[in-house]
TrEMBL record, chain A:
Pfam families: BPD_transp_2
Main subcellular location: membrane
Family: Belongs to the binding-protein-dependent transport system permease family. LivHM subfamily.
Domain of life: Bacteria
Name assigned to this protein: Amino acid/amide ABC transporter membrane protein 1, HAAT family
Subcellular location: Cell membrane
């Protein structure tokens, strides 16, 4: 057994998993406020990356300015989605809101394709691709940066949910009817959760856009991100972080052993198995609230 | 839409493409080339005195929508179709065979469709993935003085039919030539390849053949850098273009190789003529930047062949062109080089591929430099696999 090699697989798997956590945090934010898995988070991530590129490449802004400005734009977009689309569905069955997010995802993909075309573009953050050496272990610097961003956002949201506004959001997540009755604006809270998820989408879009280029494929991160969110517990930001690490390690190390046995393709089998087993055995995930159960 | 002549019913080609989903990295350039070639032909009097027309429709890479496109355009009198999508091509193929309509499937679809004795109405003109892979191995064999016995070849591929398709040929050639074959499957869309490349660094293959697309090449190049694997080990399938090079970084991509079935670069006579007669006059079919891409050249080559076959059909059988006369036109193509864009092809009733030559070229930091002549290696091995597979069609 080559322990150094397995360690490299585990470490790089954990870092990649944290990049999926970065995506999953956006899903969790929306779920906490509206109890709906946001199927448009992939589309939002792609749009976030395109907005950064539009500001940086088309308008010539430096990236350090384009990224926070894109976050502001996306914050507004998130609020806008709640105001224009979601508010009309208040009181409707959850499945209708779920379908709305699916429709929104298709709309965002179609719109960006019409405006920006299908050609992939590079983010060019300037991160070196030379390996970071930990003994004989080769670590990817961009994955390290992305993992750092995920952890920073995790800490920021932990702090945020202890602020007055954050506590209101938690109250909405607990019981929106009760929140309404004590004067908390549920609409504003849901809008804020979408706005924050859209800001997270910018972070995920920038990091993943740097790794794989900015194109329609960014929206495909949804499946893996959703798996991480479900495993962690759909309403738990801590769960998204821990589940990302677990899934990344299992996937990377597991494929090393399973691929030779099944002739390849085991990574997707592992992800599918994790998703199915989580839903069957522990629907509320690792850290989610126990009231998330099968219907 | 092409068509500046107000004459009789035009010769129409149904271009049912994925313009909105998986193949959008290439379809805009290829369809633009198709329309430009048609416009140029019409400016020069059409074919047989009649204009030509390409009808472009989106199928979103969905087989059912592809069939709808085929059915609708068939009712409009179209009998030559091009899908540029493997799943859609597979869905349409049985209908085209039954209806007696021509299915062009250059670069996609069943590799065994080159066997014209079985696939009477299907024409994968140009190299199939099987032929392209055999040619890659032929190139590597040249590098090792015709002896692959101590050579390790890694194969990194999308773990779905596109990437899995050449594995059979690779295994056959591994047994024949004695090289060690190492497989590295990557799940779609190829954004996470860290495990595969860490393993690759440990295995240290002499060459890495890649069957991936678009952004996955970018991820691969960064993983190669992280693992300090020299870029000149990387030999890509033909689906790697100037956009991918720009995203990798022109300097960082130095040494990278690709197997190609068309001439790259912009100094191609047909392209220059189109720029001069169409784009300089504001008559181009899309953005000028698309014409600077190897996929545009691919489209020029594909539609040079499609319209040359129509021209020969008109010469051989007269107007109007029918599916049967068009078939004869295709099968009369002999040493035709698609206006200098491809290795000469010869299509016959038995060989619908036309020869399957490719060449290897290397990115030198600024441009693509050919590393070989046009080659078609292991023809018998490829045809054995083709016949083995085609014999099972319809079972």
């Amino acid at each position: 057994m080559d322990w150094v090699f397995l360690s490299e697989l585990a470490i790089n798997g954990a870092l990649t998993g944290l990049l999926y956590s970065l995506f999953a945090i956006g899903l969790v934010l929306v779920y906490k406020a509206s109890s709906v898995p946001n199927l448009a988070q992939g589309g939002l991530t792609m749009v976030g990356a395109y907005v950064v590129l539009a500001l940086a490449r088309d308008l010539g802004m430096p990236l350090w300015l384009a990224i926070p400005l894109a976050a502001v734009v996306m914050f507004g977009l998130g609020f806008g989605i709640e105001r224009v689309a979601l508010r009309r569905l208040a009181g409707r069955p959850v499945v209708m809101i779920l379908m709305l997010t699916l429709g929104l995802d298709i709309f965002l993909r179609g719109t960006t394709l019409a405006i920006s075309g299908g050609t992939s573009r590079s983010m060019e953050l300037g991160v070196s691709y030379e390996p970071l050496l930990l003994g004989d272990i080769f670590i990817s610097r961009i994955h390290l940066v992305g993992a750092g961003v995920a952890l920073a956002l995790f800490v920021a949201f932990i702090v945020f949910f202890r602020t007055r506004t954050g506590i209101k959001l938690r109250a909405i997540a607990d019981d929106y009817m009760a929140s309404w009755s004590v004067g908390i604006s549920v609409e504003r809270g849901v809008g804020l959760s979408w706005a924050l998820a859209s800001v997270v989408a910018v972070a995920a879009g920038v990091i993943w856009g740097e790794i794989q280029g900015v194109d329609q494929a960014l929206s495909l991160l949804l499946l893996k991100g959703l798996t991480v969110a479900v495993l962690g517990g759909l309403d738990s930001i801590l769960g998204a972080i821990v589940a990302g690490i677990i899934l990344g390690v299992i996937e990377n190390v597991g494929a090393e052993f399973l691929d030779p046995l099944v002739g390849g393709g085991s990574r997707e089998l592992i992800v599918a198995a994790v998703l199915i087993l989580t839903v069957m055995i522990r629907p509320h995930g690792l850290f989610g609230r126990h009231d998330i159960e099968r219907v | 839409m092409a068509g500046t002549l107000a004459l009789a019913e035009p010769f129409k080609v149904g271009v049912c493409y994925d313009l909105s989903k998986a193949y959008t990295f290439a379809t805009p350039q290829v369809s633009q080339a198709a329309m430009d070639v048609a416009k140029l032909i019409n400016m020069q009097g059409g074919i047989g005195g009649e204009p030509v027309e390409v009808i472009v429709r989106d199928h979103g890479n969905e087989p059912q929508r592809g069939i709808e496109c085929y059915s609708r355009l068939s009712r409009e009198g179209v009998f030559v179709f091009d899908t540029l999508s493997t799943p859609v091509s597979l869905a349409i193929l049985p209908r085209a065979m039954e209806d007696g309509r021509i299915l062009m499937q250059s670069l996609v679809g069943r590799g065994d469709a080159v066997d014209g004795t079985v696939f009477e109405w299907v024409y994968p003109v140009g190299p199939t993935y099987w032929g392209q892979m055999a040619n890659d191995i032929g190139y590597i064999k040249q590098l090792h003085d015709d002896d692959l016995s101590d050579v390790k070849i890694g194969y990194i591929y999308f773990d779905y039919p596109f990437g899995q398709e050449p594995i059979e040929i690779l295994k056959t050639l591994s047994q024949k030539e004695g090289f060690e074959l190492l497989l590295y499957p990557v799940p779609l869309p190829g954004s996470d390849q860290s495990g595969a490349w860490s393993k690759m660094r440990r295995d240290n293959p002499d060459h890495v053949i890649s069957w991936m697309l678009g952004g996955a090449h970018v991820v691969a190049s960064k993983e190669m850098q992280r693992n300090r694997i020299p870029m000149d080990k990387y030999i890509s399938v033909n689906w790697l273009n100037e956009v991918d090079i720009a995203n990798i970084g022109a300097e960082a991509a130095t040494g990278l190789k690709r197997g190609t079935n068309v001439v790259g670069g912009q100094d191609v006579p047909l392209r220059l003529e189109i720029i001069n007669k169409l784009y300089d006059e504001g008559e181009g079919s899309g953005p000028l930047v698309n014409t600077q891409d190897v996929y545009y050249n691919t489209g020029l080559a594909m539609y040079s062949i499609i319209f040359e076959a129509a021209r020969r059909a008109a010469d051989l059988e007269g107007m109007p062109i029918t599916a049967e006369s068009y078939k004869k036109g295709l099968e009369s193509l002999e040493n035709y080089d698609a206006n200098g864009l491809m290795a000469p092809i010869t299509v016959t009733a038995e060989d619908h591929g036309g020869g399957g030559k490719t060449r290897i070229e290397m990115w030198d930091g600024e441009t693509w430099v050919p590393q070989t002549d046009w080659i078609a290696a292991y023809g018998e091995v490829v045809w054995d696999v083709v016949r083995e597979s085609s014999s099972k069609y319809g079972e």
